[in-house]
User: What shape does this take?
Amino acid sequence: MSTRRTFLSSLALAATAAALPSSLMAMPLAARPKVLLFDVNETLLDLRKLQRAINEEFKWEFAFKQWFSLLLQYSLVDTTTAAYHDFGQIGAAALDMLAQSLGQSARPEARKKELLALITELPPHPDVVPALTRLQKAGFRMATLTNSSGPAVKKQIAYAGLGSFFEQLLSVDVVQRYKPHPDTYRMACQKLQVAPADTLLIAAHGWDTAGAVRAGLQAAFVARSGQALYPLAAAPAYTGPTVADIARQLGA
Assistant: This one.
């Protein structure tokens, strides 16, 4: 009798699966996120314009990479020491530190402002608009969560022409703790009125996906050129070379 019940249950599950749209069958129903939370810098926006400018300014092919590492490092110093300066302030300080490390003179304030303003004038990666369009049509709610300041992210998204895709543009300046602090991800979930387990962070940084998973969110890693996952962290639920690839895995 138990065998017959098991057989009938299997038939019922198969029939239910057959009736589902293919987009929903692409992933387990229990894991389907209700909200997609996007990192902005490098994930959505192409930083090469800023990279070229900083490399040319400091006459070194690795200047941008060093500057960006300092920017991230000292944002975490602020977070762990209970201090807070917005991303622009830390970016300016990182330019001074870069100049000092290279034995060069610190740039004038006006020049630093010119360089840092470029972060608000970046285009989206080519895959981003088609992917966001498909995700929007598939019914996903979408928002951003960035280490950029609130005013900066508004300029970034407006310049890139992505505003119509997102219901909220969230910044860490609300909690004054930089990602990957768990409070930043939990703040985003509270603002969006969604449980962490129903939220998928999509980011091109292994430290970001690691932080999201530790905070109870799902995560997707966009393997942009030069990016890598943190081997000691829990693996993200999805990995792909572009946002479009993540969208396909989500059934969009």
About this structure: The two ends are 42 Å apart (CA to CA). Confidence is low (pLDDT under 50) at residues 1-30.
